[in-house]
Amino acid sequence: MADLTLWVDAFWISPYAFSSFIALEEKELPYDVQEVAMHRAENRGPDYARRSLTARVPMLRHGDFFLSESSAIAEYLEDAFPGSPRILPEDTQQRARARQIMAWVRSDLMPIREERSSETIFYAPATQPLSPRAQQAGAKLLGAVDALLAPGATSLFGKFSIADADLTFMLQRLGKSGHPLGEKVQRFVDATWSRPSVRKWVERKRATFIPY
Ligand SMILES: N[C@@H](CCC(=O)N[C@@H](CS)C(=O)NCC(=O)O)C(=O)O
Description:
Blueprint: E1 4-9, H1 15-26, E2 32-36, H2 46-52, E3 59-62, E4 65-68, H3 70-80, H4 92-107, H5 110-115, H6 119-122, H7 132-148, H8 162-175, H9 183-193, H10 196-202
Parallel strand pairs: 1-2
Antiparallel strand pairs: 1-3, 3-4
Residues 9, 14, 16, 43, 55-58, 69-71, 106 line the site of glutathione.
């Protein structure tokens, strides 16, 4: 058994589990994966709830240490495995910007998250048009990404960081249901989506989705 275990949602659609999975893959660390059937409330089972403190997915185990919250997991892996490939920029200001983006996509843009839930990325695209407030959130998202991305860039900071993965997941909520992202943003999204770490998540064989 590896010294690291990651608990992910059973349908492989959680943006937070995605982030932690990509972090482990990009850091090239050996780990085991356990699925949590949230439609059967397994995350609220006594062992999972006690270890995670929050009863949420994802959760990481390193030895006898358990940690939930995907951004804390990314930071922990970066600190605990200093010899492995970096997932946050080395430069202080770029690292701060990466954390800003990671916090932003976890705390804002609710209309996009509501109207383009993550199963629309991995199961079936949405058919309903975006509401005016979701369109407004989409314009805000695309405006910020346009300001952040250099022309022709395939990552935010010159080389892959976990913020690229988190931001791309949010952009795919729009892109996978047909919302035009524009050439510059689409190039960035395609570059992230074609990374071996991301392909491993995307191409996972998924069970029939049961809403929860
Ligand atoms: N901020 C948390 C969010 C985690 C989260 O909301 N996970 C969802 C699955 S996508 C969950 O476990 N929901 C169940 C619950 O909150 O009870 C993170 O980044 O890990």
